[in-house]
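Help wanted!
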Amino acid sequence: MPGQRPASADQAALLSALLEHDLLIETGVPGVYGRGGVFEDVREGVAALVTRAAAAEEPLQLRFPPILPRSDLERVGYLKSFPHLAGSVFAFNGTEAQATEQQERASRHEDWSEFQEMTDLVLTPAACYPVYPAIAARGALAPAGLTVDAGGAYVFRHEPSGDPARLQMFHQREIVRIGEPHLVEAWRDAWRERALELLGRLGLHVKLDLASDPFFGRSGRMLMASQREQQLKFEVLTQIAGPELTAVASFNYHQDHFASAYGIKLADGATAHTACLGFGLERITIALFRTHGFDTVAWPAEVRQRLWDR
Amino acid sequence: MTEEIRQIIKNHGRLPIDVDTLALDADLYQAGMSSHASVTVMLALEDHFDIEFPDLMLNPTVFESISSIEAAVSELRSKAEVS
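Answered by r_m:
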């Protein structure tokens, strides 16, 4: 099992404050927290802000549970790129005697994994993953392509950390654009600007930067360098808890990676390109508490107005 | 060595064109090699030539043409002979 990323003093202090104010609720596992009512109020306000910002595009609304068919994770090569972050669902499939033995070991908090078998499910690692097979199943795209609002689904990344801005289970508010390459790129570029403005108006100090995904291993180094060279990923960064800046939104141009995997075709039969944008709702919410304080009633009127129209 | 590299690209580069007709300095990425395919090429080169690309060489410019790959492989092999 990989070790837990240690938290900086600043990160540990922020986590303590969030727990103390009942914004996050301790579960005993680093990076997995309950949310208090005030926290959820802010998170839902941010999610609704994104919904309004995307409304003019009249996106197709699709929602999925936070689990994914295992075959989809396998098909897009997730286990090659991010084997260290994946979470797979295993379940018991044995005899009564084995069930008894499993319970005995579990009651002593010992290893009971030998009684577990792989199921057809994995935890969803990114909110856009279920969108691609669903769109492929609808046949060729219209000439203008398609925008999909995938909502704000819970996603899982196995990276236990003491940093409250690095959760194992969090909401990703995702929108996906599928179509011709130039349309997809133009959409990504427009949203980069829109997202900076949207988050800046909430009083966050944000900046845009070229980024890469945390690909695994030596192959991963090459993929990261290649992703940067092709300028496929950008992030909006802000200061949450130091030392580094934290990404609160990302813009990802997948070229034909997902469309090839599922056979998503343009009207003329060519393979489509896709891009997605994801807002990390918990990170934005925590950044807002860090910036404006733990009492939302005392937040600047303009920020309250934007989040809740009140 | 050039032909061995060409064969590895043919087997692992998943190029949509005939690798035999590729010029030595032709850009493999422009010819349609994906970044994921270039990783497979990298691992196959390591396996075939019994070398390990150091971290600094794990970037797309090293793998962008037959001649750039040949230069990198030659460099690593000559270092291996010295040490």
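OP: Thanks! One thing I noticed: The helical segments of chain B are 2-12, 35-49, 66-82.
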